[in-house]
Amino acid sequence: MTFSFMDADARLDGEAIALDSISLSQAQIDQAVEQSQTVPADQQWQTYLDALALVGFEQWLSDRAPDLTLQASSNTVTVGDFKLCLLTMGSLTDTVVTLPAGAIDSLETAAQLYVLLEVQEEQEQVLVKAILRSDQLRQHQESDGLTLDNGTYALPVEWFATDANDLLLYLRCLEPTALPVGGVQVAAQPTTTTQSLVEGSREAVEAMTSTASTLLEGAINAGINAGLWLQNQLDAIAQELTWVLLPPPAASAMRYRGATTDSPTEQFEQLISELGRVGVEVPSDARGAYRELHWGRVALRLYAVAWTLPTVSENPEWSLLIILGSQSADVPTGVRLQIRDQDQLLVERVTTPDAPQSYLYGRVIGNWDEQFWVTVDMANGAVVTFPPFSFNPQ
User: Fold this and answer.
1) Residue 347 pLDDT greater than 60, yes or no
2) What is the assigned CATH class of domain 21-182?
3) What is the domain partition of the chain in residue ranges?
4) Chain-wide mean pLDDT for the chain?
5) Partners of 100 in the β-ladder
6) To which H or E segment does residue 354 belong?
7) What is the pTM for the complete model shown?
8) How far are the Cα atoms of 88, 212, 218, 271, 358 from residue 352, in angstroms, in the given order?
9) Which parts of the chain fold into alpha helices (H)?
């Protein structure tokens, strides 16, 4: 069973949040118009949408992962050592998205990750909608088939996963060699030697697909294992996402002075002390970690603290405390902190002009097999959702 704890003044306004939307500037729109004028009239609209999709995706990646470098060439881009294919939707009612055959069949131009983007031209924004991995594409090819029509393929939108935040996890935590390039189409040949080569190629691709699925299942299903913090350890995903372990909470009578230039450890102790005065007790055997968040001029610091709860039942429980503080002054107006389980939103905190906050926090309780997702909306267009926090101290 999951429990959450919130103050009486915590605001739950139920507003819908576009977690992966990017607003377009007039300069970006004008540039896309100019680019569309360089192609024949029957291609201008799609060229215009593709140009907007590319600039929107560049901004999305820059906001959420400024350490990753993007290079673009036509509709294929590279991020680090990964090859991506950007696919543009112009309407929510689209059921298929088309792409040139080379984006799947050619080893030179095929991709490892296919990113579905929706251009909302009237609203002047781009949404990163969903992701399709090349190993998943190959599985769909074999089970459902793809028809080549006038040099293009039509991919059903339903093939794409719905959580675009998985893309950042793949780019940071997955080895590029774990994903095959494209769908790898192989034409049938009459000779035994060629057939052996074809079978060998298929076996190699199947092995790569199996490796990718295993790695991705481990990364997504396990998430960040906060249980290892109790053993002074960070799992591979937490290390890749630059989480840093903190020492055990120290009993401190210091009065919280707000976020200053103090070290993360000092600020953590101050925050724990302040929360203790409002009834949130953190036991001495709890362990925490932190991660710094930088987007533009906004600099925040996210703390996560985990501990086990005494229980006499067959289902042991754990508690997760999330604290969001600033690295300089009060948390900026409009910053939002959310905590979810697999079924629902449990905690939502937001700073408002009428109620400035030095920090935001939320605490949840669940069984050891339950996971929690944490999202931080930076109020400047940048939103980050972390892999789920899980608890397995063994």
Assistant:
1) yes
2) alpha beta
3) 21-182, 224-390
4) 78
5) 152
6) none
7) 0.52
8) 36, 43, 38, 20, 12
9) 26-36, 44-64, 102-105, 134-144, 166-173, 192-222, 236-240, 264-276
